[in-house]
Amino acid sequence: MRRVTEAAILTAVARRLDGALTAHRPPHPIVVQGVAVGYVDAARRARLARFTDVFADGDAGALALAPRLADASARTAALEHVARTLAGEGALTTWRHERFAVAARFTDPPLLTIERAAARYFGIAAWAAHANGVVDDARGTTIWFARRSAGKAIDPGRLDNLVGGGIAAGEAPDATLHREAWEEAGVPPALARSARRVGALHVERCGPDGFQRETIVAYDLALPAEFVPASQDGEAVEHRRVGRAEALRLIAQEEGPDVVTIDASLVVLDWLARQGDVPPGTPAHAVLDRVRVAPPDAA
Asked: Which residues neighbour 275 within 8 Å (Cβ) at sequence distance 6 or greater?
């Protein structure tokens, strides 16, 4: 297989991703029934502690949900009040009207659900499904990127995977992928169902909106050469098909109009590694070794 990589670009990719990913979680766990379900920094802990009817001091700086919140329904209602208060203070990203399950593992019964906009503030474990839109034709192997709308709450205007979205409470990864494939790129359902699950990548990184702790279930979606993506929901404003060398160059960029989101950069890097373009032993491959995890069991 012909290599399309250059050592300098691989090093730049590794430097960028290493700089974005964190090795340290925020120091204050949020504990529900003895399970640490979220992580917050000192400032957020201090703010949450003021909700004295919802949180109590736990061991070693943790915050525990009040004992009176004894079931998922009560916890969900209490955290909904907290989230809406924080949103009114401008502490959250745009309200999505989408629910994320809060649990230690994907297959565990949720301890509560929470508005998606609050997920990073609380540092909860979230899950997403992303697909590489791949074309094999006379041009060789190429991959589609999508540009996020300037109105997106997170990473506005940046390049992204062709398909990607958070997995809502009660939804399976495949179902999310199939739904998002139509909404974001106009991929017909029958074609979307041909997407092949190829693994999962775990992202942990601190940002101004809190702590992103997300497992991305990755897919490869083979597309015909004549297919042209078309956003159905307005969340993507441009689509671009590039070769493998250009894809690698894009995910190395740290500034300018064509910066790729960190999430998508990892998914594309994983795809390039599976094409043989990111050799084992390189710094970029070491990044993948750190973030690759087993995908959730549910289909």
From this structure: 1, 141, 244
64 Cβ contact list (under 8 Å, min separation 6):
30, 31, 32, 55, 56, 57, 58
Residue 25's H or E segment, with its range, is none
Instruction: Round to whole Å and give the CA distance between 283 and 297.
Output: 30
pLDDT in tens, 7-59: 899 999 999 999 999 889 999 999 999 999 999 999 999 999 999 999 999 99
User: For residue 116, what is the DSSP state?
Assistant: G
pTM exceeds cut of 0.85: yes
β-pairing, 63-65 vs 125-137, is unpaired
Domains of the chain: 7-23+126-293 (3.90.79.10), 28-122 (3.30.750.160)
pLDDT digits (tens, 9 = 90+) for 171-220: 999 999 999 999 999 999 999 999 999 999 999 999 999 999 999 999 99
Q: By the 8 A CB rule, do 40 and 30 touch?
A: yes
Q: Which helix (H) or strand (E) holds 148?
A: strand 140-148
Count of beta carbons in the 10 Å neighbourhood of residue 111: 20
CA distance linking residue 25 with residue 27, whole number of Å: 6
Question: Which is nearest to 173 in space by CA: 191, 190, 198?
Answer: 198
Q: For position 2, what pLDDT does the model report?
A: 45
> What is the rounded distance in angstroms from the CA atom of residue 209 to the CA atom of residue 120?
6
Distance CA 200, CA 270 (A): 9
Contacts of residue 252, Cβ cutoff 8 Å, sequence gap at least 6: 9, 12, 13, 16
